[in-house]
């Protein structure tokens, strides 16, 4: 049985300038309590690796608006005009990665693979500066693995050994990010006793999770 | 019938039974409304679900069940959900039978540009590059022209989404099939002449002897 | 709602000389009914891609004993002396692949990736003849994707749309193989009505499965 | 106490609280019996489970729940199961804190050979190459010699399992730590002299001023 921490304690673990992977897809499946605590402590200079920057007022959008984010590595910013304004104003750097490549680069970072060989992006701006490797006569882009100092996850259920489940489309990037960071912090909708989640339903084994937010009061 | 509905109805005729299909945001989403009766099509949303259905009634939305645009959806019986790595393994791995996407330009080589207008706001490619590269069949659904300029061009002036040649373009004026030898004019919209299509098109089109009118429903199942 | 086929019908779909991925780990999680039907129809010249060749009388071991297998691509044959004898007698070719590399090569085959960049096998016999790619100054072996004509799977539950679940350590290679073959044939312990398996419990979406064995009589 | 139990007891002292550990087939499996009380160690089996327990009573075996050798196991509360791709992502990705494996030879560079004897039957590497390459700490548990020949050799004569230098060797005679400068003799088995270890070892060992006797239990928790 492991003890949870508060959202403020989680935010205090994350120094200014840290790199964070944050689960979520247009805000669905993002760890809102940890994000709120990061905004509350006035975090600065963060690098955020995520699918997108959500919308103003939602998920990662709150970090962007509060000026916490110096750099975003994402597949799109189309849903967040604040990110676009900050990028054009030079207040925030944005690196765009095709969504499938982003998922696979994070997976490679967590799985100890040296990179990703993908056909996606060949012949486009996404290929600029990247090696092309031929395998059996077909060209593939070599994309580098991604890791981060922290992964901030949104789970559906957690048990007191920090095993996690995810729900429907709130799953998205959370499981791959759980493998690819030095420190993994999760918040869950529900915390259940150990043994309640069947072994086959666990999507992230608790041994991968360093901290779990205690129940919200 | 507005032109958006017309385009969606024509694209829906490309759906095949028991196929897995991804619809892009905007016009392509409309295609789901016109699935020919009797066809069982599984729709994938790249944020992690196969077998989703229409927006639920008010008050029955689930914050954990949305499409790639963040809009609320429902799950049909037999739906399956999964993470982003699996979702794009399906897309990149050739398991997606068809994707329908919007477009900014298609050129004579059949290349699509649909993610970036240099000098303007940069939305990002999202899943578009993977979809165009990985889907077995790529159908582009778009207006033939924007602000008076043809979107069917000789050569892309916007950055391509993929080096891959797409399979079909359906516009408010025509159905065009990119082939190794060039763009084939397959059909014209109801009431639109071949000459009108050619006049509205910057690219050179290959025009066969007969160019039939675009069907909007399967002959055995007339338009409702 | 889709209709199942018999084991004999499944075996009839698979021609002599076909390449098969077969789930299972020392026989646990192997599709025994399909295997029995292949033995019964006297299949010949098969290439089997699997973790191992199980034990005599169990799972893939039955195919080996019956002389159905010309070539095996596996991580070990240590549990099956019959495979070892046939290999030494020149009756069967055996290609050994590190287990993690085997899983990842199959995953790459199913995910449209050009190959796998792994540190496993560097400086060993497993590296012979394979390119070494440097990424950020670290060397990785480039291993090629694997695909097969058929995948033969063992599932726990299937519904009538062929969605599949797996159970505990009978899961093993089944889910990755479901992605990497031209024709996927599954047998399940239980067949349940559509809608009974929650979306989050489905591990292989039914759209990937071409045939399901009907209930055993 | 036989030498296998002695080796397993000594290896068990290398276990750390809240760590993820993979035990190879054979001698290494015994280590699970000697987990120091109070330590919570999660054992992984590479066929797809974390948190498994001992063989169940007769009649309670589950055909879907076995270890990597095919032997029946149980699931502890909080266990998690997964597929082979995930299992080796854990191993290769540095999530495994320690693996304990058997060995055929360890050489002065700290390289391990444990999967192939040329000219004999070829069992295959199974998961060994991934485990040795990927685990944060690799501990080899083996007899010091086989048929009179030292298994701690100057240079491997058998094919290596990985180019990686392993972290510790525990034998019936000694505990040896491979370091960049060579093999350091850390401990000797109870009643065995340094001279006896050196005489039984082909490789050159670095012998510090004092070589203590191998502990078989933690000082605060004496051997039961």
UniProtKB/TrEMBL annotation, chains A, C:
Coiled coil: none
Pfam families referenced in this protein's UniProt entry, alphabetically: CoA_trans
Keywords: Transferase
Highest taxon of the lineage: Bacteria
Gene3D superfamilies membership: Glutaconate Coenzyme A-transferase
Membrane keyword on record: no
GO function terms (MF aspect): CoA-transferase activity
Cited InterPro entries: 3-oxoacid_CoA-transf_A, CoA_trans_fam_I, CoA_transf_BS, NagB/RpiA_transferase-like
Protein's UniProt name: 3-oxoacid CoA-transferase subunit A
Organism: Roseicella aquatilis
TrEMBL record, chains B, D:
Xref: SMART domains: CoA_trans
Transmembrane annotation, as ranges: none
PROSITE patterns reported in the protein's UniProt record: COA_TRANSF_2 (PS01274)
Similarity annotation: Belongs to the 3-oxoacid CoA-transferase subunit B family.
Highest taxon in the source lineage: Bacteria
Keyword set, alphabetical order: Transferase
InterPro entries linked to this entry: 3-oxoacid_CoA-transf_B, CoA_trans_fam_I, CoA_transf_AS, NagB/RpiA_transferase-like
PANTHER family: KETOACID-COENZYME A TRANSFERASE, SUCCINYL-COA:3-KETOACID COENZYME A TRANSFERASE SUBUNIT B-RELATED
Record has Translocase as a keyword: no
Organism for this UniProt entry: Roseicella aquatilis
A GO molecular function held by the record: CoA-transferase activity
Protein name, entry field: 3-oxoacid CoA-transferase subunit B
Source taxonomy: Bacteria, Pseudomonadati, Pseudomonadota, Alphaproteobacteria, Acetobacterales
Alphabetical list of Pfam families matching this protein: CoA_trans
């Amino acid at each position: 049985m492991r003890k949870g921490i508060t959202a403020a304690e989680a935010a205090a673990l994350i120094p200014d300038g840290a790199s964070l992977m944050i689960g979520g897809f247009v805000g669905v499946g993002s760890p809102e309590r940890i994000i709120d605590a990061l905004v509350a402590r006035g975090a600065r200079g963060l690098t955020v690796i995520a699918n997108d920057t959500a919308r103003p007022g939602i998920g990662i959008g709150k970090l962007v608006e509060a000026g916490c984010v110096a750099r975003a590595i994402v597949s799109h910013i189309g849903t967040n005009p604040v990110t676009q304004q900050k990028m054009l104003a030079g207040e925030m750097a944005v690196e765009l990665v095709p969504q499938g490549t982003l998922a696979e680069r994070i997976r490679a970072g967590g799985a100890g693979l040296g990179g990703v060989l993908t056909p996606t992006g060949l012949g486009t701006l996404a290929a600029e500066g990247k090696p092309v490797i031929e395998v059996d006569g077909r060209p593939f882009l070599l994309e580098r693995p991604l890791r981060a100092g922290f992964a901030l996850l949104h789970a559906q259920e957690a048990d007191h050994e920090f095993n996690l489940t995810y729900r429907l489309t709130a799953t998205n990037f959370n499981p791959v990010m759980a493998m690819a960071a030095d420190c993994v912090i999760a918040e869950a909708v529900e915390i259940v006793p150990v043994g309640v989640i069947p072994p086959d339903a666990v999507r992230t084994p608790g041994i991968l999770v360093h901290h779990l937010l205690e129940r919200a009061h | 019938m507005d032109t958006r509905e017309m385009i969606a109805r024509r694209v829906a005729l490309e759906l095949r039974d028991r196929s897995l299909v991804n619809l892009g945001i905007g016009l392509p989403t409309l295609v789901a409304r016109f699935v020919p009766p009797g066809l069982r099509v599984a729709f994938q949303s790249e944020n992690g679900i196969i077998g989703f259905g229409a927006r639920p009634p008010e008050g029955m939305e689930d914050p954990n069940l949305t499409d790639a645009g963040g809009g609320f959806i429902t799950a049909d019986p037999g739906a399956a959900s999964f993470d982003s790595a699996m979702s794009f393994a399906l897309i990149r791995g050739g398991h997606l039978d068809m994707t329908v996407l919007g477009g900014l330009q298609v050129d004579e080589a059949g290349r699509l540009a649909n993610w970036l207008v240099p000098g303007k706001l940069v939305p990002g490619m999202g899943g578009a590059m993977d979809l165009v590269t990985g889907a077995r069949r790529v159908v582009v659904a778009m207006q033939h022209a924007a602000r008076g300029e043809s979107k069917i061009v000789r050569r892309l002036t916007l950055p391509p989404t993929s080096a891959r040649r797409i399979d079909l373009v359906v516009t408010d004026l025509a159905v065009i099939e990119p082939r190794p030898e060039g763009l084939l004019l397959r059909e014209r919209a109801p009431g639109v002449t071949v000459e009108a299509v050619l006049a509205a098109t910057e690219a050179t089109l290959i025009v066969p002897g007969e160019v039939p009118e675009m069907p909007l429903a399967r002959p055995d199942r007339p338009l409702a």
